[in-house]
# Entry
Amino acid sequence: MIPTSQINIANSPRRGHIITMFQRYSQALIEAAMGDTPVVLLNGARQTGKTTLVQALTGKVKKATYVTLDDAAALAAATHDPRGFIDGLAGTIVIDEVQKAPALFPAIKLSVDRDRRPGRFLLTGSANVMVLPALSESLAGRMEIITLRTLSQGEMEGSRETFIDRLFSGGKMTASSVPCSRDSLASRIHKGGYPEVVQRPAGRRGRWFASYLTAILQRDVRDLSNIVGLTEAPRLLAILAAQSAGLLNVADVSRDAGIPHTTLQRYLALFEATFMIHRIPAWSVNMGKRLVKASKLLLCDTGFMAYLLNASEKSVLENVHMTGRFLETFVGCELLKQIEWSDCKPALLHYRTATGAEVDFVLETGGQRVAGVEVKLTATLKADDFRGLRSLANDAKARFAAGVLLYTGEKAIPFGENLWAFPLNGLWS
# Structure
C-alpha cells in the first residue's frame, strides 16, 4: 500500500520546528507557474523551507495528495513501480524529495503527456536537477524549476528587494539610510539564512550546522554518490569555505586536500548538486582582450561558511585574510536569492582581466545588458575604486546598464556615467 494522504497540507505537521513563519518571495513564482505549467519543481538545499512553503501553497487546494520519499515505504513503492505509483495518485500531486526516485520523472512525463492540465504536479527536491541532466531532460518543456535558497535579508525583515531590477531600470540609483554598522553586518554574515539558524543565539548555531552537515552527507550526498566513504567531505568543505569568493583552482584544492583530481571533481559536482557550493562563470565578450576564464567559487550560505571555518560572530569581519571573502560571499548569496524573483532574471557572472581589473559580480540579462556590482568594507571611496567597473563598462560598451560599488556609507553617490557608490544595506532595504 502506497503511504499517501489526502490532506489539507497547510494544517499538517512540519518537519522540525520553526518559531517564525517568514514570507517567501518565491511563493508568487510558484503560484504563477502552477497556473500554466503541468509540473513545478521547487528545489533547494535541505532546511531552506521547501516543505513549509509547499504546505502553505497547497493548503489552498481542495484536494491534494502528499507523499514524501523520505518515507521508506513510499520510496520503495516509487522505485519498484514508478508508473503504477504515479497512476495511483489523484488531485494535485505533491511529492517531497523527488530526487530520491529518479525513475519517477519518466513516469510523470507519461502522465503529463496524457493530461497537460497546469498545476498537476508540485515536486520538491534537495538536489539540483540542472546539474543532474538525466532528470531534467525527461521533463523538458513540461516543467518549471524554481530554486528556494536560504532566507534573504529582505525576507527576514519583511521587505521585498528590488535592487537587481533597479540596476537595469536606466534610472538614477537613489538611497538614503542609516549606515550599516560593522557589528550589524557581522551578525548578518554569521547567521546566514537557514530559517532555524537565524532564530538561534550565536552560540547555538554550530550545533545545528554539525547535525545538518551529518544529515546532508549521510542522506543526499550518499544517495547521489558513487564515492566509497565520505570521510574526506567535511575537511574538503572547510578548504573550499576558505576559498569562497575566489577563483576555483581545482589543482590547488586537490593538492591541499590530498584528494585525487578525479575524486575531487566528483565531490565538487555533489556539493554543487546539493546546493552547498555555487560556481560563478566568468563573463566573456567576443573581443581580443584577454579575460580570465576560471569560475569563482561561492559557499551558498555565510552561516555555514562561518561554521566550517570555526569563525565566531565577532571574528568574521576581523580576520584580515577572510573579511573580504566573507563579505563578498554574503553579497553573492544575496544576489543569487534576489535573481529568483527579479523581473529580468539575469545570470550571475564575474569579471577579471589578465591585467588585474576585476568586478566581483556581473549580472547579464537574456538581452545581454550588463551591470556590475563591487563591494568594499569602507565608508570612504576614491575614484580608483571604480577601476574594475570602468573596465567592464568599456568592454560592454552600449550594453552596460550600470555599475554599483556597495560600501558602508549612507547615500548613493554618482562616480561617473552610470557608476554609483551605493549603501550596502540598500541591497536589501
Notes: The chain is about 35% helix and 15% strand.
